[in-house]
Amino acid sequence: MKALILAGGRGKRLQHHTESYNKCMLPLMGKPLIQYSLENAVAAGMESIAIVVGYRAENIINHFGTVFQGKRITYVIQTERKGLVHAMECARDVIDNSSFMLFLADEVIISPCHKEMLQRFREENLFAICGTVSVEDRSQISKTYTLMGDENSNRIFRLIEKPRIAINNIMGTGNCIMQSDIFSYVERTPINIERNERELPDLIQCAVDEGQMVKYFDIGNGYFNINTPDEISLAEEQLRHKIQDMHSVQKTVPPSQSRLSDDV
After folding, report:
1. Is residue 108 classed as helix, strand or coil in its secondary structure?
2. pLDDT tens per residue across span 18-33
3. Closest CA to 148 of 85, 194, 99, 216
4. Are residues 198 and 83 in contact, defined by beta-carbon separation less than 8 angstroms?
5. Which pLDDT does position 162 carry in this prediction?
6. Within a domain: residue 253?
7. In this structure, is residue 94 part of a structural domain?
8. In this structure, is residue 258 part of a structural domain?
9. Eight-class DSSP state of 39
10. What is the predicted pLDDT for the residue at 243?
11. Structural domains in the chain (count)
């Protein structure tokens, strides 16, 4: 099992923040944004890590080098920014017929549970599993995607990219696990008229339409897709609250049972 982290975009909505730096290297709580994905990949037990880079690629390569917490990093250059599916396709040879866990380097999950999602993927021999979060503000879902599925089995029947009106509280993330055969659906994936690129939900939908077993999984207690300066501030506020809550819980637990865990 390999980790695939997509970090090629600039993030134009972050304005001057990304003129000199790759978006994924912007600091969040004292460490680069992409480091949250790297730490989650290691915590989930990934054997190796592939990072797709493009804009200001040297920022990431020079900072992290070829090893992160004992896991080898391989870099893949995306020479043209044509979206997430194109970035995935650039890494096809590096994935080399392995199942892989996908991360978007501009996403942060609060209280992530990638290891549990991986266990579900393996136990049920799934084709793919999509990490989702439940949100109160449905307008946030228009930034990513939502889905329709069986509430009992969590099987997905329909994925909807950036819905104008969300039909439920399920917000999709880029944290997914897939079999390598997902690449066989790239050419069948329609090109989005507005963005002129192939979208991740549409790629997965092609597999769903052929009867592949694809499910969704509650990946954490909160989620941020960093696209604006305000979202950086909101994410830091949520992370601070989470750390404060963790320390508060520790103070109430006997020393013999206390354990500080990295939960973000």
Report:
1. strand
2. 556 788 998 888 899 9
3. 216
4. yes
5. 94
6. no
7. yes
8. no
9. H
10. 65
11. 1
